[in-house]
Write a structure and sequence with these properties.
Layout lengths: L5 E4 L9 H16 L3 E6 L9 H14 L8 E2 L4 H13 L3 E4 L3 H13 L25 E4 L6 E6 L3 E6 L7 E3 L7 H11 L4 E5 L3 H14 L5 E5 L2 E2 L15 H6 L4 H10 L12 H7 L10 E2 L2 H14 L2 H14 L3 H9 L1 H11 L6 H12 L8 H4 L4 H15 L6 H15 L3 H13 L7 H8 L1 H12 L3
Parallel strand pairs: 1-2, 2-3, 9-10, 11-12
Antiparallel strand pairs: 4-5, 5-8, 6-7
The chain binds glutamic acid (GLU).
Glutamic acid binds next to loops.
């Protein structure tokens, strides 16, 4: 029987789910989904000074919005500290770890000496084999693990290949501090073991930690999970990703009008590839995903690509789903008039969406494009649209209004025929006639086809809007 694949996403609660963390979560999730396994969530909340309930909630909400589900309740690393301590003491009893009574002064002297000798600052192992009877009175010890004094630790990594660390370069690191708090190194190993994690997928900034963690796994004779360290995300200029580049929380992307499916698609492409495929659904991603497809080099964040993919996903999505997304976004951004307008014209907006979808790259643009449907008369005219309304075009609109008033068939095709005939008669190109109509009907220069707009608005609303601009501007 093969073991169920268990991955985990283990963020430190920093106040939001940043885009790099979201990508790590996505890889863990996709890999687990692909193999019928499960992703678990562990909040690495041991730094109590920085922890807050709100920061935890931000992570959970970010994951939910992205559609990345996890098994069971999120595990709090801090709540498991007794278990971490238990393992530290077990390792001492087994002779695989030891109590170190060095004071802070001693340690800094040790570091200074190493520096003078041109060596990396390392613990010199003075309590490793010392007689416990020498323990100074009243000093709380820390616990250090015995790292093998020779040989190597090899991290078998799915992206980096076999990465070898000389044991001589890993000093006996602390697993339990003198105040009884477990270190990150110990907590991660104990948690991964207890959570039955089979695969660790995380940023490659944790690669050296992996070697130390393997020392603990080995000491406990626990299976080492399979390791995958993913190269980090850089900005478009190759520098470390900063806010300017897009290192924001996923909630910022939601507010800019990106769809979760597009963000998933984009994040997957940032560091993973399947041939030349750029645009794909989440189902395809799950089908195609493999750790071998992860790139070895750092990836570069590119807003234009994200926007482009978002536009493609908007085109593919169902109108009813997009409508819900538009309403939610309007609500979230506090655009209550848009929210009310959308809800009051739900059916019309949904039926107009296939016309709007190819014209929008974000959900925000979709809302803007839909505004003409519920805009109140007289419509505000966008600055750059207003130049299409002048004495000549107004006179022309008045003539067209007269024709439209006696026209019974209010379907787009029939309306188009009417305007086309009018243009031919006047020797005007269709665009010359249609653009002022569009501006009067929508207040903008960009909208769905003008005849579709008229059909959608109906005869009386269309005529009133035309008259607002042509007869009594
Ligand atoms: N808490 C660590 C971080 O946010 C991740 C630790 C891990 O994945 O092992 O970078």
């Amino acid at each position: 029987m093969t073991n169920k694949i268990i991955t985990r996403f283990a963020p430190s609660p920093t106040g939001f789910l940043h885009i790099g963390g979201a990508r790590t979560a996505l890889f863990n999730w996709v890999f687990a989904k692909k193999h019928g396994g499960e992703m678990l969530l562990r909040i690495e909340d041991t730094d109590r000074a920085r922890y807050s309930e709100e920061a935890k909630r931000a992570i959970e909400e970010g994951l939910k919005w992205l559609g990345l589900d996890w098994g069971g309740e999120a595990v709090s690393q801090y709540q498991r500290r007794d278990r971490h301590r238990e393992i530290a003491h077990e390792l001492v009893e087994k002779g695989l770890a030891y109590k170190c009574y060095c004071s802070a002064e001693e340690l800094s002297e040790m570091r200074a000496r190493a520096r003078e000798a041109g060596l990396p600052p390392r613990y010199d192992g003075r309590w490793r084999d010392a007689d416990p009877a020498l323990a100074p009175e009243g000093v709380a010890p820390s616990i250090r693990i015995k790292v093998p004094t020779s040989g190597t630790i090899v991290v078998h990594d799915h992206v980096q290949g076999d990465v070898t660390f000389e044991c001589a370069n890993l000093d006996d690191f602390i697993i339990l501090r003198s105040d009884g708090s477990p270190t990150y190194m110990l907590a991660v190993v104990v948690d991964d073991h207890d959570m039955n994690v089979t695969h660790i997928i995380r940023g490659d900034d944790h690669l050296t930690n992996a070697a130390r963690q393997i020392v603990i796994f080995n000491a406990m004779q626990w299976d080492v999970p399979q390791m995958t360290h993913v190269p980090l995300i850089h900005g478009p200029d190759g520098a470390k990703l900063s806010k300017r580049h897009g290192a924001m929380g996923v909630d910022a992307y939601r507010k800019m009008g990106y769809l979760p499916a597009a963000v998933r698609n984009y994040l997957a492409r940032l560091g993973w590839s399947h041939g030349d495929d750029e645009f794909f659904s989440t189902e395809q991603m799950i089908e195609w995903f493999s750790l071998e497809g992860l790139n070895k080099g750092a990836s570069r964040f590119d807003f234009a690509k994200l926007e482009n993919l978002n536009g493609q996903h908007i085109r593919e999505e169902k109108p009813a789903y997009l409508f819900t997304t538009m309403v939610e976004l309007a609500e979230e951004l506090g655009n209550y008039s848009d929210k009310a307008g959308l809800l009051a014209h739900k059916e019309t907006v949904i039926s107009a969406l296939p016309e709007l979808q190819p014209r929008a790259k974000t959900v925000l643009e979709l809302i803007t494009l839909a505004q003409f449907i519920y805009a109140e008369r007289p419509l505000p005219i966008e600055e750059k649209a207003s130049k299409h309304l002048n004495e000549n075009t107004r006179a022309m609109l008045i003539e067209i209004i007269a024709l439209l008033e006696i026209h019974a068939n209010w379907e787009a095709a029939s309306l188009q025929q009417l305007v086309r005939d009018f243009g031919e008669q006047k020797e005007l190109k269709l665009g010359k006639v249609a653009q002022p109509m569009r501006v009067a009907l929508t207040g903008r220069t960009v909208s769905p086809g003008v005849f579709e707009v008229m059909e959608l608005l109906g005869k009386s609303e269309s005529l009133e809007r035309l008259k607002d601009q042509a007869v009594h501007p």
